[in-house]
Amino acid sequence: MSQTLFERLGGTEGITKIASDLTDYHVAHKAIATRFANSDISKLKNAFATFIISGTGGPNVYKGMDVLSAHKGMNISAVEFMAVLDNVLAALKKNNIAQREQEEFLYILYSMRSQVVLV
Ligand code: HEM
Question: Can you give the residue ranges of every domain in the chain?
Answer without folding.
Answer: 5-113
